[in-house]
């Protein structure tokens, strides 16, 4: 049986692990051709030999399918999954267990960023971890 393909490469300082499309976490012994790269900002790498939590795995699968592709992500133990949009805004997605939740959160962040830009506000962070109460910081 062939191993499942690499989905995400997780990197923290000089250590790397990767998870496959089934969520299994493995040591990165050589260069890994993963669809996503995740820089661990704070917290630990996923433990070797474990499976990612299903909501996080679902988010990564959805992130890998988004067009145009968003390949570089950030993980924070405090804020969950994040990315920097093309304008330099840090978008905090958190973790969701809703199928399609990633796209919804990204659309909400884009709509909020556009609204704020039309008001002349330049934000540094948009946080959509809580759909009913998104917020931003300047």
Oligomer: single chain
H/E element order: EEEEHEEEHEE
Mean pLDDT: 94
Looking at the structure, what is the overall shape?
elongated
Residue ranges: pLDDT <50 for 5 or more in a row? none
- Helical fraction equals 10-25%
CATH fold call: Rossmann fold
Number of helices: 2
Largest sheet: 9 strands, mixed
Percent strand equals: 25-35%
CATH class: Alpha Beta
- Domain module tally: 1
**Number of β-strand runs:** 9
**How would you classify the helix and strand content by structural class?**
alpha/beta
Radius of gyration: 15 Å
Please write out the topology.
Blueprint: E1 6-12, E2 15-20, E3 25-27, E4 36-42, H1 54-65, E5 72-76, E6 80-84, E7 90-94, H2 101-118, E8 125-127, E9 135-137
Parallel strand pairs: 1-4, 4-5, 7-8
Antiparallel strand pairs: 1-2, 2-3, 5-6, 6-7, 8-9
Structural write-up:
The protein has 138 residues and is of the alpha/beta class. It contains 2 helices and 9 strands, in the order E-E-E-E-H-E-E-E-H-E-E. The model has no long low-confidence stretch (mean pLDDT 94).
In short:
By secondary structure, the chain is of the alpha/beta class. The protein has two helices and nine strands.
Feature tags:
138 residues; alpha/beta; nine-stranded mixed beta sheet; Rossmann fold; 2 helices; single chain
